[in-house]
Write a structure and sequence with these properties.
The chain is mainly β. Helix content is 4%, strand content 31%. It folds into 2 domains: 46 residues, no CATH class; 32 residues, no CATH class. A hairpin with a 5-residue loop joins strand 2 and strand 3. The protein is rod-shaped. The protein binds zinc ion.
Length: 96
């Protein structure tokens, strides 16, 4: 995802010209082009996402269905919450 913004870039004439994104249009330059106002498309990933969305290694636990399979072993299907059952092991099945 990207985002377009207006940016003023100064250029001292010695460095390779580098902008933090893709220049879509030059809106204004001063007489020797040492300063330009440009329409810039920047990558949102590097421009905005200062802090990553990931929880710092503290991933949510995986919960498993509490039902029993036909052979008597614990079901290994993942469910959303502790004590939940998967579609294959509804509560009434436990009576056996
Ligand atoms: Zn199950």
């Amino acid at each position: 995802m990207s985002l377009v913004r207006v940016e003023t870039i100064t250029y001292d004439g010695t460095e390779p010209f580098e902008v933090p994104g893709e220049v879509l249009a030059v809106l204004h330059t001063n007489h020797n082009q040492s300063r330009m106002t440009v329409l810039l498309r920047v990558d949102v990933d590097q421009a905005v996402l200062a802090d990553p969305v990931e929880d710092d290694g503290k991933a949510e636990d995986t919960h498993y269905c509490i039902g029993m399979k036909g052979d008597g072993s614990r079901c290994t299907r993942e469910v959303d919450d502790v004590g939940d059952r998967c579609w294959q092991h509804p509560e009434e099945d436990d009576a056996e």
